[in-house]
Write a structure and sequence with these properties.
By secondary structure, the chain is α+β, with helices and mostly antiparallel strands. It contains six helices and ten strands; from the N terminus they run E-H-E-E-H-E-E-E-H-E-H-E-E-H-H-E. Strands 1, 2, 3, 4, 5, 6, 7, 8, 9 and 10 form a ten-stranded mixed β-sheet that branches.
C-alpha cells in the first residue's frame, strides 16, 4: 500500500466546492474518479481543507492510499489526461504512511483579490471580486492587523444550526500569523496565513474589512466583533470568486 501526496491547482468556478456531493460536481469527486480510472483503486482522497463552491486553489494538497505500482511521474501525467481542464495535478509524491493532507498540515495561506478598476476585464472576472466603489484602503490595512495572534474566530465562522454555541466556542480557536492588504495596480489584495481556517472564515473577514473601507466600521469595531464570538456581529460573506488557497505547509 502506497500513501500519496497529491498537489493540485483548480479553477473552482464550475464546481460545488471540494467535498464530494450527490449529483453535484466537486473537486474531490473528480479526483477520485480520475484515480479509479487510471489505477483501478476506489479511494476518496482527503484534502487539506474543504474549499467552498467557487473558490480556487493554486496548491491544494490531497492524500490517499493506493495499491497500484504506477510511478508517480506517470501517475501525474495520466491523471491530468483524464481530469477536466479546470483541475491540474501539479505533482504526485510518495509520502510516509502517517502523512494525512489535513491532519498533518501546519499552516495555510489564502489570498482574496478585489478588483478596484471601473471595468473588470472579462478574463479576470472569475478570479476577483469587482468593487469599483470608494474604499478607505488604509483603514482596511490597519484593521486587518487586529486578527493576528491566537483568537476564537466564532464571529467569522459559518453558522452551523446543528452545533450549540458552547461547542462552537470551544472548537473555533485558530492562530493567525499574518493578515494584510496590499495594493497591486488595480487590485487590492488580502493575504492571510494561519494555522487553519473555519468554513467561510476568510470570506467573512473580507466582508467585515470591506465595512471598514466603507466607513461603517473601524479598527476598534473589528476587535469588538472578534471578542463577541457571534457571527451576526460580523459583516457579510464576500463572494467566493475572489478567494484562492495559495499554499499548504507541512
Amino acid at each position: 500500500m502506497r500513501n500519496l501526496k497529491i498537489t493540485l491547482a483548480y479553477d473552482g468556478s464550475d464546481f460545488h466546492g471540494w467535498q464530494v456531493q450527490p449529483d453535484r460536481s466537486s473537486i474531490q469527486g473528480a479526483l477520485a474518479a480520475a484515480i479509479e480510472r487510471v489505477t483501478g483503486c476506489k479511494v476518496l482522497p482527503q484534502g487539506s481543507g474543504r474549499t467552498d463552491a467557487g473558490v480556487h486553489a493554486l496548491a491544494q494538497v490531497a492524500s490517499c492510499q493506493i495499491e497500484a505500482g504506477i510511478p508517480t511521474e506517470n501517475l501525474q501525467r495520466a491523471l491530468n489526461h483524464v481530469l477536466p481542464p479546470a483541475i491540474r495535478v501539479l505533482s504526485v509524491e510518495e509520502a510516509p504512511p502517517e502523512f494525512h493532507a489535513r491532519r498533518s498540515a501546519r499552516a495555510k495561506t489564502y489570498r482574496y483579490r478585489v478588483f478596484r478598476g471601473e471595468v473588470c476585464p472579462p478574463f479576470l472576472a472569475r478570479y476577483v471580486y469587482h468593487y469599483p466603489y470608494p474604499l478607505d484602503e488604509d483603514a482596511m490595512g490597519v484593521a486587518a492587523a487586529v486578527i493576528v495572534g491566537e483568537h476564537d474566530f466564532t464571529s467569522f465562522a459559518a453558522v452551523d444550526p446543528e452545533r450549540g454555541r458552547e461547542e462552537e466556542s470551544a472548537s473555533n480557536g485558530r492562530t493567525i500569523c499574518s493578515s494584510e492588504w496590499i495594493r497591486q495596480e488595480e487590485e487590492f489584495i488580502y493575504t492571510v496565513r494561519g494555522s487553519g481556517f473555519l468554513q467561510h472564515m476568510v470570506r467573512n473577514l473580507v466582508g467585515t474589512f470591506l465595512l471598514v473601507g466603507k466607513g461603517t466600521l473601524d479598527r476598534a469595531g473589528v476587535k469588538r466583533i472578534l471578542e463577541a464570538r457571534d457571527r451576526s456581529a460580523a459583516g457579510p460573506t464576500a463572494p467566493a470568486c475572489g478567494l484562492c488557497l495559495v499554499s499548504v505547509e507541512y
